[in-house]
Amino acid sequence: MPQDQLRPKCLEGSQSVSLPKGATVFRAGDPCRNFYLIESGSVRVDLMNSEGKSILLYRIGANETCVLTTSCLLSHESYSAEAVTESDVTALVIPANEFQARIASSEQFREIVFRSFSSRLTRLMAKVDEVSFASLNSRLAKRLLELAGERDFVETTHERLAQDLGSAREVIGRKLTDWEKQGLIARHRGSIDILSRPALTVLCGQRD
């Protein structure tokens, strides 16, 4: 069955758009003009400082919405972060004025928006807790295992790990060098081999 026939009635008539990997969805300071519901692919949302350094706030995947977009639409404020596609993405797009009309008239649409908003906000608070209280060792080990999934390697860079964890590339590099000396990992250009998954799992439980 075509995907548009599976959409809830409240989403009928929404425009579907495609974005290539690496496309900027919005930047800090941009007005919020559209509501997005991701159908496929992944978008990362980063908070940037005045020096150009960034930290990953969250990712948006299939059947998810952006908590920052919802907040901006409801408060009529501009974006305070940047969103970039991590892969080819398809999404339903609803203009801001139509979003307001559907929020006011459709109970089903309100349920979709606020259920996703609540779920994302809960995960964002967990992220704040992790950054505030978990050790960098714990967060780095957890991120490597997340990226690896069932595989024994990770395709990433020191810079990307630093952005994901809100740290400096040099700090991440020192941690990885120590782990390599201990036999936990092996580093290659653009990738990291996981040599001791149990050891990294133990590190995930460390707190400051």
Automatic annotation (TrEMBL):
Q: Does the keyword Transcription regulation apply?
A: yes
Tell me which PROSITE patterns the record gives: CNMP_BINDING_3 (PS50042), HTH_CRP_2 (PS51063)
Q: Which InterPro entries match?
A: cNMP-bd_dom (IPR000595), cNMP-bd_dom_sf (IPR018490), Env_Response_Regulators (IPR050397), HTH_CRP (IPR012318), RmlC-like_jellyroll (IPR014710), WH-like_DNA-bd_sf (IPR036388), WH_DNA-bd_sf (IPR036390)
- Record domain HTH crp-type: where: 134-198
Gene3D superfamilies in alphabetical order:
Jelly Rolls, Winged helix-like DNA-binding domain superfamily/Winged helix DNA-binding domain
Q: Which UniProt keywords apply?
A: DNA-binding, Transcription, Transcription regulation
Tell me the superkingdom of the source.
Answer: Bacteria
Keyword Lyase (UniProt): no
Domain named Cyclic nucleotide-binding: residues: 19-120
Cited CDD domains: CAP_ED
Q: What is this protein called?
A: Crp/Fnr family transcriptional regulator
> What species is this protein from?
Roseibium porphyridii
